[in-house]
């Protein structure tokens, strides 16, 4: 996706991969537009082995939309959707150098008044042949129904 390229340290997936994500997981993907231009993107899916967990595959915000809490707003919007009504946990993987994402997910956990646990997940030398930084699993939850209800109320008042 063109939006991921100028957003290091995000991996750029193939166009085919992004098209499949949008086609197969359209209910759990979010696109933000500003004046007809895509400025934000969240790709996510409900984990088939843990149906109460949504996994955030990728999130990007264009340079022109940064500083407006857009990533945070897109995650809130996603959690308020009907498809996430049974979701009690959110997971994602983040590299150590991606401080912006780390900050967004910690802020989300704080807003939801829940825990944010971090653990090693995919290791550079074991999983990536030394060609990619370690990925750390961020697990947020449990997310209460009341917390999601409050997100929805806030979103409706914007």
UniProtKB/TrEMBL annotation:
<dbReference type="GO" id="GO:0033816">
    <property type="term" value="F:diaminobutyrate acetyltransferase activity"/>
</dbReference>
<comment type="pathway">
    <text>Amine and polyamine biosynthesis; ectoine biosynthesis; L-ectoine from L-aspartate 4-semialdehyde: step 2/3.</text>
</comment>
<keyword id="KW-0808">Transferase</keyword>
<feature type="domain" description="N-acetyltransferase">
    <location>
        <begin position="1"/>
        <end position="155"/>
    </location>
</feature>
<protein>
    <recommendedName>
        <fullName>L-2,4-diaminobutyric acid acetyltransferase</fullName>
        <ecNumber>2.3.1.178</ecNumber>
    </recommendedName>
</protein>
<keyword id="KW-0012">Acyltransferase</keyword>
<dbReference type="InterPro" id="IPR016181">
    <property type="entry name" value="Acyl_CoA_acyltransferase"/>
</dbReference>
<dbReference type="GO" id="GO:0019491">
    <property type="term" value="P:ectoine biosynthetic process"/>
</dbReference>
<dbReference type="InterPro" id="IPR012772">
    <property type="entry name" value="Ectoine_EctA"/>
</dbReference>
<dbReference type="InterPro" id="IPR000182">
    <property type="entry name" value="GNAT_dom"/>
</dbReference>
<dbReference type="Pfam" id="PF00583">
    <property type="entry name" value="Acetyltransf_1"/>
</dbReference>
<comment type="similarity">
    <text>Belongs to the acetyltransferase family. EctA subfamily.</text>
</comment>
């Amino acid at each position: 996706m063109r939006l991921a390229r100028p957003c290091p340290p995000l991996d750029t997936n193939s166009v085919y991969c992004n098209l499949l994500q949008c086609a197969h997981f359209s209910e759990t993907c979010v696109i933000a537009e500003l004046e007809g231009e895509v400025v934000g993107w969240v790709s996510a899916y409900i984990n088939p082995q843990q149906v109460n967990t949504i996994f955030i595959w990728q999130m990007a915000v264009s340079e022109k939309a940064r500083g407006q809490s857009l990533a945070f707003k897109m995650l809130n919007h996603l959690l308020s959707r009907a498809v996430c009504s049974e979701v009690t946990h959110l997971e994602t993987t983040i590299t150590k150098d991606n401080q912006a994402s780390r900050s967004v997910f910690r802020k989300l956990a704080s807003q939801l008044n829940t825990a944010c646990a971090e653990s090693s997940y995919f290791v550079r030398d074991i999983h990536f042949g030394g060609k990619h930084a370690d990925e750390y699993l961020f697990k947020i939850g449990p997310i209460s129904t009341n917390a999601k209800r409050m997100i929805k109320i806030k979103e409706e008042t914007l």
